[in-house]
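To assess whether the prediction recovers the assembly geometry, we first specified each molecular entity separately, as shown.
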Amino acid sequence: MKKIVTLALFLAVIAGLSGAALSYVYSVTDPIIQEAAIASEKENLVKIYPSAEFKEVETDTSQYSAIQGVYEAEGTGYVYKCSVVGYGGGSTPIVYLIALDNDGTYKGYEVIDCSGETSGFGSRVAEQEFKDKVVGKNIGDSIDTLSGATISSSAVVAGIEEATAHYEENFK
Amino acid sequence: MGLVSLFIGLTFVNNVVLSKFYAVCPLLGVSKKPKNALNMGYAVTFVIFVASIVTYVLYYQVLKPLKITYLDLITFILVIASLVQFVEMFLKKTSPEIYKSMGVYLPLITTNCAVLGVALDNISAGYSFIEAAVAGLAVPIGFTIVIYLFATIRERLEIANVPESFKGTPIALITAGIMACALAGIAGLV
Amino acid sequence: MKKIDIFKKGLFVENPIFVLLLGLCSSLAITTSLTNAIGMGIAVLCVLIMSNVIISLLRKIIPNEIRIPVFIVIIATLVKCVQMLMNAFTPALYESLGVFIPLIVVNCIILGRAESFASKNGVFDSLLDAMGMGLGYTFAVLVISFFRELIGTGGLSLFNPFDASQVIFQFEVFGDYAVSLFTQPAGAFITLGCILAFIQFLKVKKANKAKKVEGK
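The predicted structure of the complete assembly is given in tokenized form:
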């Protein structure tokens, strides 16, 4: 009996030491890995929250086809990366960031790619005119589409609505 | 993905040995006699199936909620080692002849890349529980089919007229390569 | 055994892949390019050195009955650390080596050396053994990759593992005649089979020569 106890104890000690070593290496490498994961989005994220610390959030977005990624701006709010099919079709979706701030408003909106939209018409979703319709509005309020760019802007609005629904379900 | 196409895919098209390269060591080691190959196949099927389920549950119910996913390698391999130990004891008691014929290859199932490989792949592919269980069955069945076929071919190779330099392992590897080619031919199936 | 022999045997006479036939899973899977081969070779070398040294240091206090599980826990810890470090510092290599990084845990070479050498020999000897075996492994996968990449893609290339965009060298020899079969699984088996056949050929030649000398 004593033999088995000593053996088990020894194994437990080894396992404990290993766990400690792993925990240490993890604490050192994880921040670097997180940083690399959002590095590609960073240059767009800082346009909305220039001084915030960002972290990619692991969450279930399987019911929301428009949501490509969710980032938390620590202490301030959440930024959703959305991809919706506009006038240009599925091969050139409109990709944009929408920020839902803790203060209950849409704090930022930046278009990353709308090359598939008609310039002068659908491309207006990237311009200040549309931005003003979004930024500052309370989360959950309806957003007006652009006349003359109905397809593109309704797609963007639908994406914002999905982000809002996910936000209300998970972070509110 | 339909469960049936997942099953067929893992058993044949993405066959664990010939396409993903897991379990190559036992392939070359055990497969000289078809009967041994089949026994190894049964043992491995049991281990991989149970291991897939247990590691999956452990990962999602224990490691992830506690945010200690970096302990995955250690926990998985300990689960696998215990399972193999259990199979060893079971075989020793119930059928000593099989236990003897498998020799050192039985404890070596612990280091069989396929077992750990499947457990890890189930997680990284984001399978649901059912999909992970199906994978845990399909993969070892594919392995069993391959090593059985391989064993029968190697039996023939022993008496065939093989050039001196190729006798033994080299010709076995070339054979595996040809089998892999054949599999590549049905790649479009799923 | 002389110290230098402990180191040398891992390179050729007891080369883990070509002679002992251990660690084949990873060597067949990752030998699609020289960059992958070097990356994996270095990873295996590091793990092997650390595990041999640690196990040799602890060999007198590890109870014999549970030595295998203890070895496995130590090796698994080392491999996981290497995996996390690679994810952080060499992300491109981490992506291309994929699941085969954690599979180093079940790479028979590591457990094999721990069981047959490190648990029975001093620390310095174990270190030499690990270096020899690790370099032998790296050499073997480089040879296999050399043929697979050359015949399979028609050229050779080497990238900096820390910065995937930095090319160390890249040249094409015969692009149009590349046999892409060699970058696929079938090609891996065939390449290794031919290399082993060549080694066996050399052995047979040596044995025949010895027989002739004896016969005289």
